[in-house]
Amino acid sequence: MSQELRVIHTEMLMELAHEHDEIMVLEADLMGSMSTGKFAKAHPKQFLQCGIAEANMIGVAAGLSAVGKVPFVHSFGCFATRRCYDQVFLAGGYAQQHLNIFGSDAGVTAVANGGTHMPFEDTGLMRLVPNSTVIDVSDEYVLRAAMRYAYHHRGVNYLRSTRKDLPHLYQSEQDIEIGKGNVLKDGTTITLVASGICVHDAMQAASIIEEKTDHKVAVIDMHTIKPLDVDLLVKYAEKTRRVITIENHNVTGGLGDAVASALLCSGVALESFCKLGVQEQFGQVGSLDFLKETYGISAGKIAESCLSILDKH
Amino acid sequence: MQTQAMQVPLDLRQIESFNLAIKKEMSQALLNMGYGHFGGCLSVTETLACLYGHYLKHDPQNPKMIDRDLFVLSKGHAGPALYATLALRGFFDLSWLQTINANGTNLPSHADMNKTPGVDMTTGSLGQGISCATGMAIGSHSNVFTIVGDGELQEGQCWEAVQFAAHYKLSNLVVFVDNNKRQLDGELADIQEPFDLQQKFTAFGFKSLTVDGGNIAEICNAIEQALATTDKPTAIILDTVKGQGLKTVVDIPANHHLRIDDNLRVALETDIAMLESKIEELK
């Protein structure tokens, strides 16, 4: 088991800030939730507490970028995107500033904070910022690679993640290239394309499907939702002819839509395509297992949906 | 018409002349275009003339000069006033003013740092520029000046930024409020009463003062007070008249954005001719 991703996030900020004076870390009264206090103590001149004022935090970050700094801002995913979208879009994207945004508690991982704090729309919003990068963190090393990428890649970079720990999928940061999906399991008859926490459930679902059928299931961790690894998708779509996407997000605007659009435009002929994820619903309080089950993204539900789709075709 | 390289700093009389030239060039450009944000452009030209004529450290030949002072036009729709200022200072040729809002232009209606030499921040969505200016002030040692509209202060983000700037005691930040008392839909007092702006800024922790925003000497004096302040940011409330300098514009109650018909064109041309005479008188 990895450490909590918030701890990794702070570690990475410390590592990057140690090497690069221009890094600035901005919090909107969620330092305690994100464990960035350690950073604030170690690098007080590179830390700004902005208070509960996300719109201003993004504006300040854009201003910092305009004078040569590299800002990393954090809030819960809803408040880091939806609440300050105009600021992200204009002061960040349109003004061509460097804005690294970490939206924590992606989707159902907001658990007990419930519907007000549960972003099922952040990926969609951030995909719509021209030239943005959108990453859904599935593992410690994805997070590390994504943060390093965010420092070096000038633009609006959005990382969504749970703050909690996730089992390891990779051995090191070198296993990750931002913009390239990772094939975690090869297969020949069906491809599961997942991101974030759903990658783990997709892997389990693949085992369930293979136990119950003769299908050979490929699983792709599409951690970078934008820019999307279209070549890999087309390769697996051609190979397996069946593609199912799984996301901890509304199926409108997220990974599923991105994959569907890319495959349709590629002209590849598919036997089946389906988007699993939140179906036009809002969030709610509950345990992680309950919420995954409710929104159809637990390993069991993923397997069930896949089997039903396979039966139909 | 060519831009003579202007030697700054200017004295008060020269700043006044610069102000009139900004009004003239900007109004002529909008007149040629047939529409524009006349009212709110005209109410900030005195302040722009003071900044670019005297107090703002900048170099038209090197717009991105590292240790320059920074200016953010938070009320981004006054872009044409800024463009006329920058052109007269020599950032680009005055002929560019004829391209405002033309297809593919470098001078869009709202200020854009990636298109126009000398523009330090992209603005247009009200409330955002002041936050960006605040970020620039905390991230640099430069003086950062910003102009917000009085109507713009209805955006909550402005007060988030004001709170932040005061908390961090950003004495290198100077916020001008263009208190022209009118916004697109009418008088501020009817739409959202702003109450006492100076008191509001003071309550937030700013040094705050009110000056006649049409009076060059008063604006200069206020800027000098702001620059001498070392423990807090300064707000300079500019008591302005929307459209000031062009009687025709002032007399139109809804002068936020004007579309110019033939009658208005004639009246504005007369006003612009008067500006020219005043500029001549000051020579």
Instruction: Give the ordered list of helices and strands of chain B.
Output: HEHHEHHEHEEEHHEHEHEH
CATH class categorisation of chain B: Alpha Beta
The figure for the number of domains of chain B is: 1
Number of strands of chain B: 9
Can you put this structure into words, describing what you see?
The complex is a heterodimer of chains A (313) and B (283). Chain A is of the alpha/beta class. Chain A has 2 domains: 5-161, 3-Layer(aba) Sandwich (Rossmann fold); 182-312, Rossmann fold (3-Layer(aba) Sandwich). Chain A has helices at residues 5-19, 31-34, 37-42, 54-66, 77-82, 85-94, 122-127, 140-152, 198-212, 230-240, 255-266, 288-294, 299-312; strands spanning 23-27, 47-49, 70-76, 99-104, 133-136, 156-161, 182-185, 190-194, 217-221, 224-226, 242-250, 272-278. In chain A, helix 1 packs parallel to helix 8 and helix 4 runs parallel beside helix 6. The mean pLDDT of chain A is 97. Chain B is α/β, with parallel strands linked by helices. Chain B has a single domain (12-282), classed as Rossmann fold. Chain B has helices at residues 12-33, 38-42, 45-55, 79-89, 128-139, 156-167, 188-191, 197-204, 216-228, 247-250, 262-282, and strands at 35-36, 70-73, 144-149, 173-179, 182-183, 186-187, 207-212, 234-239, 258-259. Chain B has a 5-stranded parallel β-sheet with strand order 2-3-4-8-7, with helices on both faces. Chain B has a two-stranded antiparallel ribbon with strand order 1-9. The model of chain B has no long low-confidence stretch (mean pLDDT 96). The chains are: A alpha/beta (313), B alpha/beta (283). The interface between A and B is medium-sized, with 26 and 32 residues.
Comma- or semicolon-separated keywords:
heterodimer, A: 313 residues, alpha/beta, Rossmann fold, 2 domains, seven-stranded mixed beta sheet, five-stranded mixed beta sheet, 12 strands, 42% helix, 20% strand, globular, B: 283 residues, five-stranded parallel beta sheet, two-stranded antiparallel ribbon, 9 strands
